[in-house]
Amino acid sequence: MIIVSIAGIKKELQTQLIHNHPDVDFRFYKKMNEAEKDLPVADAIITYGENLTAENIQSANHLKWIMVISAGVERLPFQAIKEKNILVTNARGIHKIPMAEYTFAAILQWCKKMKQWTVNQDKRIWSKYGLEMNELAGQTMTVVGTGAIGGEIARLAKAFRVHTLGVNRSGRKVEYFDEIYTISEIERPLTRSDIVVSVLPYTPETDHLIGKKQFDAMKEDSLFINIGRGNTVDQAELLSVLQSRKISAVLDVFEQEPLPEDHPFWGMENVVVTPHFSSISSLYQPRAFDIFEKNLLLFKENRTDLINLVDLDRGY
User: Fold this and answer.
1) Helix (H) or strand (E) run with residue 73 in it
2) Rounded Cα distance, 64 and 137, in Å
3) What is the domain extent for residue 81?
4) φ, ψ for residue 19, nearest 5 deg
């Protein structure tokens, strides 16, 4: 069995894989142009999901499985993969701890006016009563997307005594959420929320799902956080509502990445911009490869019931 990695795997993890699976011929690369010569003989590919083309899939004559070591799979060439009946799995679930922690770092800096702390210290200003700091306890939060990440955000929110509202496709109940609404009802929780967090994956169904109607529904002085995908939000409408200073925002994802240097978001006092790094953690790859190794054992048995199978029709 030959497995080609184009994911820039850490050396210690490479050694671990080779030791744990001596019956597998692992071929590790950092870039696609280095790996292309081995694609025709690969039984499986490990990737972040951003560097595979339809042409790559066509040349991979033996390919049966693609392991994406991230949650996002929207850049995969789905049609080419479907035509060859290739299994796709991802690392869904491994991001919940760092992304939930990022979310609460963002919320607390907004609630406690922490940006001003740094400004005051740099200017040596002793201003004890100059900041209108608020309490998080008793506030209401809507999380759009109640999967692993959204669920972890809601779990942490309960420790802060926050009332949690969730939005998902089906309206199914999810632990740690006090109330659940369907996508078609999304404006209802938004009108009540002090904080709105979007954790949506990108699919045709979620394209620009949050736009003018949803921003108009949000409360004055509320906080909007996007850690899902940039294209799930109408960025022009988001810019408009932020320029009106109705709301504040912490944005980790954008329609165009990197965010252009001349984009207005960079200079807005009510916006925090971060470079799509909410999931970064020293434990990222070890967690991803824990899933991979479990799936590899199933794959060796020619099983198709792998962990985190991606529905190629839905795109996640």
Assistant:
1) none
2) 50
3) 2-93+282-300
4) -65, -45
Q: In what order do the strands lie in the sheet with 163-168?
A: 179-182, 163-168, 140-144, 195-198, 223-226, 248-251, 271-273
Model confidence pLDDT, tens digit, residues 228-251: 999 999 999 999 999 999 999 999
Model confidence over 170-216: pLDDT tens digits? 999 999 999 999 999 999 999 999 999 999 999 999 999 999 999 99
Whether 116 and 174 share a structural domain: yes
The 3-state secondary structure of 187-208 reads: HHHHCCCCEEEECCCCCCCCCC
Element (H, E) at 145: none
| Closest C-alpha among 95, 8, 74, 80 to residue 46 | 8
**Residue among 108, 102, 104 nearest 135 (CA):** 108
Q: From edge to edge, which strands make up the β-sheet containing 44-47?
A: 25-28, 2-5, 44-47, 65-68, 87-89
Q: Which of 99, 65, 93, 153 is nearest to 287 (CA)?
A: 93
The first and second tokens of residue 40, run together, are 């025709």
Q: How many domains does the chain have?
A: 2
